[in-house]
Amino acid sequence: MTPAFAPDSPDARNLHVIAPDRLDDWLAAAPPHWAGWLKATGFEAGYGETRLLPGADGVEAAVVGLGSAQARRRLRFGLAKAVASLPQGDWRLTGDMTPEERSEAALGWLMAGYRFDRYRPGKAEKPQPRLVAPEGVDAARLEAMAAGEFLTRDLVNTPSADMGPDELEAAFRALAARFGAEVEAVKGEALEAGFPMVHAVGRASDRAPRILSMTWGTGPKLTLVGKGVCFDTGGLNIKPTSGMHLMKKDMGGAATVLGLAKMIMTLALPVRLRVIVPMVENAISGRALRPRDILTSRKGLTVEVNDTDAEGRLILGDALAWADEEAPDLLVSMATLTGSARVAVGPDLAPYYATEDAVAAALEAGAKAGFDPVWRLPFWDAYETMIEPGIADLDNCPPGSFAGSVTAALFLRRFVSCPRYLHFDIYAHAPAELPGRTKGGTGQGARAVLSALPALMGV
Q1: Model confidence over 321-374: pLDDT tens digits?
Q2: Are the CB atoms for 53 and 94 separated by under 8 Å?
Q3: Contact (CB, 8 A) for 77 and 10
Q4: Cystine design at 254: which of 31, 60, 176, 228 (Cβ 3.0–4.6 Å)?
């Protein structure tokens, strides 16, 4: 599935975008049968409110409401609600819209075309109406954003039986091959020796753990690290049934960095891109990691395992240490790491941590430009003692329920020395159908990072 805009043509029908405060003027200038129809059906130009407009041979055009400024603040991609109401064919947006509103509408339209039908081959969805790229938008960039998002959603939505470490590696290699990137894989004895925490987390499963690195391009060094826990039982600190229902998405960090990498490579940005993904299944067997075990990480730091269900920060610790060894200009990690982050900001915001205020400022601007909301949480130094158990250098899960996302971020920071580091504690799942976002797997933070790269990397 490749999201793309339709070519402009005379056959494209108009989708008129109307703001509520301009509705009366628009109706006064519209053909009487259109105006009468809209008044009779109670059209008020609410955000995403859509009506088809009749013509001699059927549907001639359509209108969609721009809604109030408050409504637009509350809901992203509201104009994408129109897609489900429109007949097949090509459509062109018309009306008074800012460049930002046109870009948001166009991106939302592309993302509304996503379907996950791998397990419903006999129920293929009907073709979606297509949008002509609105004037003034960067069509190639929006198409790249949507294509990267589709990859992320596909990976997260695939059940763990079909998305274990082998399958995630295959997806990783397929993306690398498409763009001519180099791949390095570390497995078996080399993994145990070089990445002890990755091996320790994954050794209980008969689906062998591994870590992969992809390298592409030239320019300033950008390294992305994604958590690739293909399923998380919690290990010996086993999760309850309710806690396992969504654990196929515990590789959402890996899926998101692969989606972001696809965006970057599709746009041929002048960066030296490296993507690192540790791939494991946190299973239960006689070889499972035990509570109170002490691991020696790749960096040399010792870690007491106080909760085997806090495995994501273990594999990321080794991965970040590897990434940090070549001193990237910007290091970004993404992970479905803590329930505390969901309690703090819910499923729609992507909380992040930044070591530099300038990096955070660039990301905030990128989030606005990419229609990808983020929220900064602090690397709060006063909590450093919470991750120091005394018996080892670090505690992977301090007791108590306070500041769980912050202490996890502080744990990861211990494995990083490069000055510019961003960490995202994402959810990677939309719990309900929303405009431009189907229920299920979703990317978070990728478009914000992509849009921030000009400021962060000078590209």
Answers
A1: 999 999 999 999 999 999 999 999 999 999 999 999 999 999 999 999 999 999
A2: no
A3: no
A4: 228
pTM across the whole model: 0.97
Place of tokens 């290699």: 173
> Which of these CATH numbers, 1.25.40.20, 3.40.630.10, 3.30.300.30, 3.40.250.10, describes 142-457?
3.40.630.10
> Does the annotation count 313 as an active-site position?
yes
Catalytic site residue from 92, 274, 313, 414: 313
Distance CA 11, CA 334 (A): 44
Task: Read off the pLDDT of residues 222-265 as tens digits, 9 standing for 90 and up.
Answer: 999 999 999 999 999 999 999 999 999 999 999 999 999 999 99
CA distance 208 to 309: 18
* Highest CATH level, class, for 13-133: alpha beta
User: CA 351, CA 343: separation in Å to the nearest integer?
Assistant: 11
Whether residue 239 lies in the annotated active site: yes
How far apart CA 110 and CA 1 sit, in angstroms, is 11
Active-site entry in 72, 203, 239, 342 = 239
C-alpha angle 349-155-132 in degrees, rounded to nearest 5: 75
How is residue 139 written in tokens? 């069509």
Cβ–Cβ contacts within 10 Å for residue 138, how many? Answer: 14
Residue 180 to residues 168, 170, 216, 392, 459, Cα–Cα distance (Å): 18, 15, 7, 42, 20
Cα 51 from Cα 63, distance rounded (Å): 5
| E strands in 245-395 | 272-282, 294-296, 302-304, 330-335, 350-354, 374-376, 394-395
Q: At 347, give phi and psi (nearest 5°).
A: -85, -15
Percentages helix, strand, coil for the chain (3-state, rounded to 5) are 40, 20, 40
Between helix 357-370 and helix 446-457 the angle, nearest 10°, is 130
- Sequence-ordered list of residues with C-beta below 8 angstroms from that of 277, at least 6 positions apart, any chain: 168, 172, 211, 212, 225, 226, 228, 254, 257, 258, 319
State which H helix or E strand residue 232 sits in: strand 228-232
Helix 99-112 to helix 139-157 angle (10° resolution) is 40
For 151-208, how does the pLDDT look when each residue is reduced to its tens digit (9 = 90+)? 999 999 999 999 999 999 999 999 999 999 999 999 999 999 999 999 999 999 999 9
CA 110 to each of CA 149, 256, 437: distance values in angstroms, whole numbers, following the listed order: 10, 18, 10
Structure tokens at 354: 């930044």
Give CA–CA dist 326/274, Å, rounded: 10
Cβ atoms within 10 Å of 184's Cβ, excluding its own: 11
